[in-house]
Amino acid sequence: MMESLIRMVREHIDTLDSLLARYVAGTLPTPARVLVEAHLELKPKSRIKVRNLEAMAGLELIAADPVALSDRDAMLASVLASQPTEQAPQPDLSAQQDRVFPRALYDFVGFDAADVPWRTRMPGFREYDLGDIEGCHVSLFWLKPGRTVPAHTHEGSELSLVLDGAFSDARGHYARGDISVADDSVDHRPNVDLGRPCIGFAVMDAPLKLTGSFRQLIGDIIG
């Protein structure tokens, strides 16, 4: 089961559009699904994309040939005997306005940015490691303003959602709500914007691999 989840992320997620398509299809591991749901809370344009993808999937379902139920009467009896679902309480929006973490991520980790139990990994780089979940390695990261992440590539896929601050690499600029999608075709050296730390949520299905010269690596590690 775990290997299938790892292959699912590695083989199919190389762009934001492919990530959203996997989300609509319901095939993402839980951490990646949470990452996308947090992104959708912050990015209205992506919510429109998802609605369009859902509409297309609905049309495909309508056009599909019907399949007979194996035990129609038993299934109908089960539905009729089920208890009505209680309506979920409405979220307290006033309590969410001051949060850095979108609701999906807050519910997943159980706290907001101010309460993350960070551990320093190297100067200017802190991390909260949530461990391995459904074949993915999951973490929160904090990078000081102006910090450069050592050059690296990936043995699989890495999804990074920016929650506060921003960073840039050779592919573009990523600010709050943006997702960086990287795989083994990407060799990058992200640099954090000046002015405020960059906080993010990362989901990887394989380790990263350091690249670049030894001198550059030492300089980036020292920060």
Description:
With 223 residues, this protein is α+β, with helices and mostly antiparallel strands. It has one domain (1-87, 101-223): Jelly Rolls, CATH 2.60.120. 38% of the residues lie in helices and 24% in strands. It has a six-stranded antiparallel sheet, covered by helices on one side. Strand 1 and strand 2 form a beta hairpin. Helix 2 (16-25) packs across helix 4, helix 3 (30-42) packs across helix 4 and helix 3 (30-42) runs antiparallel to helix 7. It is elongated. The two termini are 40 Å apart. 25% of the residues are buried. Mean pLDDT is 83; it is low at 1-10 and 87-94.
Task: Please supply descriptive tags for the structure shown above.
disordered N terminus, Jelly Rolls, 3-stranded antiparallel beta sheet, alpha+beta, 8 helices, 223 residues
Please describe the topology of this protein.
Blueprint: H1 2-12, H2 16-25, H3 30-42, H4 44-63, H5 72-81, H6 93-96, H7 103-109, E1 119-122, E2 125-133, E3 136-143, E4 152-154, E5 158-164, E6 167-169, E7 172-174, E8 179-182, E9 191-192, E10 198-204, E11 208-210, H8 214-222
Antiparallel strand pairs: 1-2, 2-3, 3-10, 4-11, 5-8, 5-10, 6-7, 6-9
